[in-house]
Specification:
Blueprint (H helix, E strand, L loop, with lengths): L1 E5 L2 E3 L21 E3 L1 H15 L5 E8 L3 H11 L3 E6 L6 H15 L3 E5 L10 H9 L3 E12 L5 E8 L2 E8 L2 E5 L11 H7 L4 E4 L1 H4 L27 H10 L6
Parallel strand pairs: 1-4, 1-6, 4-5, 5-11, 6-10, 7-10
Antiparallel strand pairs: 2-3, 7-8, 8-9
Helix pairs in contact: 2-5, 3-4
Length: 254
């Protein structure tokens, strides 16, 4: 089974995000970047499947400028076999990224595509679903457990996902797209020897033109603004006072 994993370079989750003064974008000057946490979970799951002898190869792919090669090297240090950078400008819209990932998946003849359910910068939660639709593959989103039911053709997996009120288990036939949720696994840290080995692993660079994908976008960002500052809280002396404030001041109950 060949597994393709997409990874995205995003602002580190410990960094407080700043917006540019002209409200055109997020300010990335001197900001620490790292792999999207949900992508780390996707990489970890693919590596675990390889360690179990289920997967034969793990290929990681990232869409963006040359800077995302650093993220790909991190994935290689964690255990992926090789990497592909699709060289584009940063900040493509979700559909363009999905088209590129779908084409790479076709070219690689990937049996399973594992992706983070969303990136923590744009929080769109739609690229995985778009890739599945473009390829006409089955999809299972927000996976908290992946079990390979049959390794023989047709390969089947069961994906458990959390839903309102409990768990749902989906049985899907490969090739398929699975997006990962937080509870799927605990990502490992790369060891120093593996970091050194990652420098020698193959990393190919492709362009949208080579893939035959038009990344023209119909999406235009009008403005980027920070969230409104939160007002300080208050203490109330009784439930009656709380209900009165909710009804007459906040007007959230009637």
């Amino acid at each position: 089974m060949k597994i393709l994993v997409s990874v995205k370079r995003v602002i580190d989750y410990n960094v407080k995000v700043r917006v540019k003064s002209d409200n055109t974008a997020v300010d990335l000057t001197n900001v620490k970047m790292s792999m999207n946490p949900f992508c780390e979970i996707a990489v970890e799951e693919a590596i675990r499947l390889k360690e179990k002898g289920i997967a034969t190869e793990v290929v990681v792919v990232s869409v963006g400028s040359k800077n995302c090669q650093e993220t790909l090297r991190t994935a290689l240090a964690l255990g992926a076999d090789r990497a592909i950078q699709v060289d584009t400008e940063d900040g493509l819209d979700s559909l363009s990224v999905a088209k590129l990932l779908a084409k790479v998946a076709q070219d690689e003849a990937a049996d399973l595509i594992i992706m983070g359910k969303q990136s923590i910068d744009s929080d769109n939660n739609q690229t995985g679903q778009m890739v599945a639709a473009l390829l006409d593959y089955p999809q299972a989103t927000f996976a908290s457990e992946i079990v390979v039911v049959s390794g023989e053709a047709p390969q089947e997996i069961e994906v458990t996902r959390e839903i309102d009120g409990g768990l749902q288990t989906l049985a899907i036939t490969l090739p398929a797209v699975v997006t990962t949720d937080l509870r799927l696994n605990e990502p490992r840290f790369a060891s120093l020897p593996n970091i050194m080995k990652a420098k020698r692993k193959p990393l190919d660079v492709k362009t949208p033109a080579e893939l035959g994908v038009d990344v023209g976008s119909n999406v235009r960002i009008l403005s980027v603004t920070p969230p409104a500052q939160r007002a300080g809280g208050i203490k109330v002396g009784s439930v009656t006072e709380l209900v009165d404030k909710l009804k007459n001041e906040a007007k959230v109950v009637s």
